[in-house]
Specification:
The chain is an alpha/beta fold. Helices cover 17% and strands 37% of the residues. Strand 11, helix 4 and strand 12 form a beta-alpha-beta unit.
C-alpha cells in the first residue's frame, strides 16, 4: 500500500453518467490484483472531506511495465461530480492498492463472471487477467446486467479469446430482458461451473450467492460499501458473517472479496 500523488492521464465519458479515468502512478501497482481498490482524495478543499473508494478497472502498461491504473465510476453525488471535472494533468492523491482480490485456483476449468451496473470494474480486470493465467481454463462465461443499455459499460472489452458474453437489461433495451441472475440460472440449468465471481448491487450478489449455494458451486463476491478510511481504522464498513465466532468483518481490510457462503445475507 502506497500513498502518492498521481497524474490524471484521461477522464472520459464511458456511458451516460459514467466516466473512465486513467491515473499515472509512480509505484506500487505492478502487483495490483482484480478485486482490489484505491482511495482517492478529490481536491484539497474541505468538501468532500473523505476519500472515495474505487475498484480497479485494470492496469496501464508501457510494454511490460505497469505505469498506472484505471477506474470506472458513476456520477452519483458531489464527490464523483467533482471527479468528472478533472482534466489531463490534474493531480489526485491516491492510497492503494487496498483490500484482497479474487482467487481463481489453477484447478478451475469452468469459470463464470457476473457484473451488474458499476460492478463491472473488478470483473473486467479479472477477465483480462485470465488471459495471462497459467492453467487450463476450458470455458469462461461473462454475464453483464444493467437497468437499461446505458448502464452497460465496457462490455466490448469482454470480447476475449475463449470468452462468451451474455448481456441482460431490465427493460430489454439490449440483450436479454430481465435481471442478469435469470440468465445465469438458465445457463446453469444446462451447464455447470467450478467457480462464480461476481460484483454488483447487494440484491444481485445475494441472488447470485443463493444460486451458487443451491448448485454447490463455489462463489466469490466483491462487495461495495461506503468507506471513510479504507484501512480498517474507522470500522464503518462492517458486514455480518454467518459464523457467530466471527460476527462481523470489514469490507476494506477483510474484503472487498468474500467467500459468499460466509456472509449472512
Amino acid at each position: 500500500m502506497i500513498e502518492q500523488d498521481t497524474i490524471v492521464l484521461r477522464n472520459q465519458p464511458a456511458a451516460p453518467g459514467y466516466f473512465r479515468m486513467g491515473l499515472s502512478c509512480a509505484a506500487g501497482f505492478d502487483s495490483a490484483k482484480p478485486g482490489q481498490f484505491i482511495m482517492v482524495r478529490i481536491g484539497t478543499e474541505a468538501t468532500p472531506l473523505l476519500r472515495r473508494p474505487f475498484s480497479l478497472l485494470g492496469q496501464i502498461r508501457d510494454a511490460d511495465r505497469v505505469t498506472g491504473v484505471e477506474i470506472l465510476y458513476k456520477v452519483v453525488g458531489k464527490g464523483t461530480e467533482r471527479l468528472s471535472r478533472c482534466r489531463s494533468g490534474d493531480r489526485l492523491s491516491v492510497i492503494g492498492p487496498l483490500g484482497n482480490a479474487f482467487l481463481v485456483p489453477d484447478s478451475c476449468r469452468q469459470l463464470i463472471l457476473v457484473a451488474g451496473g458499476v460492478g463491472v470494474p473488478p470483473i473486467r480486470f479479472l477477465a483480462q487477467s485470465m488471459l495471462e493465467r497459467e492453467g487450463d481454463l476450458h470455458r469462461c462465461v461473462v454475464f453483464v446486467g444493467g437497468r437499461t443499455k446505458d448502464d452497460l459499460v465496457c462490455i466490448t472489452e469482454f470480447d476475449l479469446p475463449g470468452f462468451l458474453l451474455d448481456v441482460s437489461t431490465d427493460d430489454g433495451s439490449q440483450g436479454n430482458q430481465g435481471m442478469v441472475t435469470r440468465s445465469l440460472e438458465k445457463a446453469l440449468d444446462s451447464g455447470s461451473a467450478d467457480l462464480i465471481c461476481a460484483c454488483g448491487p447487494p440484491g444481485m450478489l445475494k441472488a447470485v450467492s443463493a444460486i451458487a449455494a443451491k448448485r454447490g458451486i463455489s462463489c466469490q463476491v466483491s462487495i461495495e460499501a461506503m468507506m471513510a478510511c479504507g484501512m480498517g481504522a474507522c470500522l464503518g464498513c462492517a458486514v455480518k458473517m454467518r459464523d457467530d465466532n466471527e460476527r462481523y468483518r470489514h469490507v476494506c481490510v477483510d474484503g472487498p472479496v468474500f467467500d459468499a457462503s460466509r456472509l449472512a445475507w
